[in-house]
User: Which sequence fits this backbone?
């Protein structure tokens, strides 16, 4: 089936992780350190160990408010996110911008991200007008894109067959394996963290290689 829809992950694929990392690994540890009277380095270690215990397959891992409540931090998640947005210099990946511009005339472009809405809309603001739909799985569906049902829902909402999609992202399970289970074509963008050991088909190191993946699956 011919590809008609290109679906992108957001964090680590279209936009770098600096913005979300500032929230999880800088601002929250600072607030926790102040509250507990400990150093920020120690606070960061404590928080990171809690994040790791919950893990990225759990909805709570993505929810700023959950962590604010859990650590009983002063203020609100929204206030902190607003502060970061005011001072943050967003970085979209150059290859992503080029590919999004290049493909937008020929394909329907969407985003399927686990990032919560309060992060996602800001992260993508430079390119959001290029996308037909921007899905935050966590905010819109109350689910992590760790099982096929999420991608089936996306296909339904676009009135499309899974075979019409190519999804690309930087999470081996969520972006490469899961959508592939229902017959979507998938590509994994390896931005150099060495996570993938087996080089499989559809593994790319630059989003501009997407055109090659599309050529290889055009029939
Ligand atoms: Mg990602």
Assistant:
């Amino acid at each position: 089936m011919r590809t008609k829809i290109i679906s992108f992950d957001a964090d680590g694929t279209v936009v770098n992780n600096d913005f979300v990392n500032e929230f999880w690994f800088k601002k929250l540890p600072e607030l926790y350190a102040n509250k507990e009277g400990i150093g920020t380095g120690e606070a960061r270690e404590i928080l990171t160990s809690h994040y790791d215990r919950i893990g990225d397959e759990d909805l709570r891992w993505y929810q700023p408010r959950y962590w604010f409540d859990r650590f009983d931090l002063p203020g609100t998640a929204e206030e902190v996110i607003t502060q970061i947005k005011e001072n943050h210099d967003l970085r979209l990946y150059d290859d992503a911008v080029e590919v999004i511009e290049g493909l937008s005339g020929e394909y329907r472009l969407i985003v399927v991200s686990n990032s919560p809405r309060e992060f996602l809309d800001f992260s993508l603001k430079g390119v959001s007008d290029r996308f037909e739909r921007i899905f935050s799985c966590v905010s819109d569906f109350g689910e992590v894109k760790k099982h096929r049902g999420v991608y089936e829902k996306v296909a339904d909402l676009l009135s499309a067959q899974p075979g019409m999609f190519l999804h690309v992202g930087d999470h081996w399970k969520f972006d490469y394996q899961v959508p592939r289970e229902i017959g979507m074509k998938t590509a994994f963008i390896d931005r150099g963290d060495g996570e993938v050991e087996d080089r499989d088909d559809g593994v790319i190191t630059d989003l501009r290689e997407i055109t090659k993946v599309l050529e290889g699956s055009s029939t």
